[in-house]
Every structure is written in C-alpha cells, then in structure tokens.
Amino acid sequence: MAFAEPHETYVPLPTESGANHQDHEAILSLVPIHVVTHASQLPKEFLYPSPERQLVIGFDCEGVDLCRIGTLCIVQLAFLDAIYLVDAIAGGTKLMKACKPALESSFVTKVIHDCKRDSEALYFQFGIKLHNVVDTQIAYSLIEEQQGRTRSPGDYISFVALLADPRYCGISYLEKKEVRTLLRQDPKFWTYRPLSELMIRAASDDVRFLPYLYHKIMDKLNEKSLWQLAVRGVLYCRCFCISNNEDSNWPQVPPIPDYLIKEGDSPEEDILSVLNVPPGKMGRIIGRKGSSILSIKESCNAEILIGGERGPHNKVFIIGPTKQVRKAEAILRGRV
C-alpha cells in the first residue's frame, strides 16, 4: 500500500566545526522525501555540477541482484534538506542519463557504504562511471589502521554495524533486518510500483545518515588516510567493471600529494590488478570452504575480490600496495 505525499524523515545534521556538541547530540532535521520519476524533480545544482557549488550527498542503489546482470531499481540521494528516490524503473534510461553528469562529476561527492556492486550496475546498465565517492566501509578500515587495530582479511564492517558504533552514530538500524528478510522471501521486492511505505522508508534509511557519517569520518582521518581513501574509492568503483588491466577510460587515480612525499620515505601507491582465471580453475583458488583464498589473503596485505555467484566468474581483482598486489598475483598464478 503506497502512502500519500508528503513523505518525510529525519536527517542528522553535522555540527559546525568547533561546536560544543557531544556525539549523541546530533541535531535532527525533518526533511521531505521525493520520489523522482522525471529529471525536473531533482535539484539543478545536482543536475548541472559546477566547481562553484560543490556538493556532498549520501548515495546508494537498490535493485534485484544488484550487479551487471541484475536490475537497478532505485538510486537514493540524501541532501541535508531533502532525500530524493530516483525511480530508475519508472524514469528509465532518460532519467538515469540526466543523473550521469553528477554521478561522474568530481564536484559531487557521493558518500556510500561499499560502492563496488552499485558502480558495476550503473556502468553496465546505464553506462555511468561512478566517480568521486567516499566509501564509508573503506574509511572505517583506514581509521582502524590509523589507531593500530588489525582486522581479519576481507572482514569489512557492515553498514548496520557502522551506524551502531557509538564513535560514529550509535544508532540501531533494526529495520534493515526486516527488509533483508523480505528480500529473501521475494527477490523482486524493489521492482513493485507504486512504492510502498516500507519501500520508501527503507530506501531513505539507507542514505539519510550518510552525510552525517561523512563529517564524523573525515574528522578522524589523517592526511595520508584521506589520500588513500580517494585512491581506493577510484579503484573500488572500477574493479568489477573492467575486464582487464586496461582501464584508461576511467577517472585517473589521485597521485601522491606533495605533502606526503618525503626524502626516502614516501607512501606506496595502491593499484588494481585483474587476473584472468582459466576455465575450471577457480575452485583451486577458493579452496575447500574458502580455505585457499583465505590463506592467500592472510599472506598479502591486499584485498582480493572474487565475483562469486554474481560474477564475473573467471576473474580475480586485487587491490592494495603495488608490492603486495604483485605478491598476491604470484601466489594466485601458482595455484592455477
């Protein structure tokens, strides 16, 4: 059952720098939720990005089996004064084409939690090369590294867990479990129209905290981590989209800033490597219950990604410092 306009929700506002507010004292602002089926319903500053008015927005996508072969259904955009649910089904290619300049723009920062599959769906379904993201999943790992904490290979924090962390939001997002249960029961959940109250609420909840999280995270990152966050954002956006190591058509990876270059002690650049796996050999890389791939991850300080059920099925994507990526490549080639 769809509910009548206007739709509204609360967005936590970031406090001004230096403001005397505790973490749990976030200011809540009641904002409208707009279901968008035509480009004219979107803000002009989003549709026509410019260096004079740079934006930071929460961003996410919903769909059926979200990847290159799935169906992208909704693109959520969270501004501080409104949330826009871009209906890719009702608006179709024309609406998504109107969003393309902003989603590819360096003047619009898209704050997202785990950008890989969203980027893949946008690229293969609408030809959009997602760019200039701040991935809160990557940012969290960088902050943990700064503070001397280690994590298990491939153990990235979920969005629900990040929101619950009192250092960031301290909010329990129990509704996410409800939606996940519904998706298991009916994978076509996001395709139904008109959007139900639950669909609008769930889609809004996935982005309304992101602008606030952005400010909390950026305050915690040091200069080196900020650069690494930008680099990894570029690499993670393209990793499931490219078929080989020729990715010159994608946005350039940010170079090492001058202020991080010291005589004899400069940070190592992160790179992305795509490794083709011969037919029938992926099982040797993964191993029994994932034992083989886990041991490889433990021996290399690099992220090793496999397409799995959603594919691509014959490739391994490696992201990390150059030396560690080359080490992972050598081990992987030895397995096949």
UniProtKB/TrEMBL annotation:
Tell me which Gene Ontology terms the entry assigns under biological process: nucleobase-containing compound metabolic process
How is this protein named in the record?
A: 3'-5' exonuclease domain
Keyword annotations: Exonuclease, Hydrolase, Nuclease, RNA-binding
Ranges for domain K Homology = 269-336
Which SUPFAM superfamilies does its entry note?
Answer: Eukaryotic type KH-domain (KH-domain type I), Ribonuclease H-like
Molecular function terms, GO-annotated: 3'-5' exonuclease activity; RNA binding
Instruction: Using the record's annotation, list all stretches that form the 3'-5' exonuclease domain.
Output: 33-222
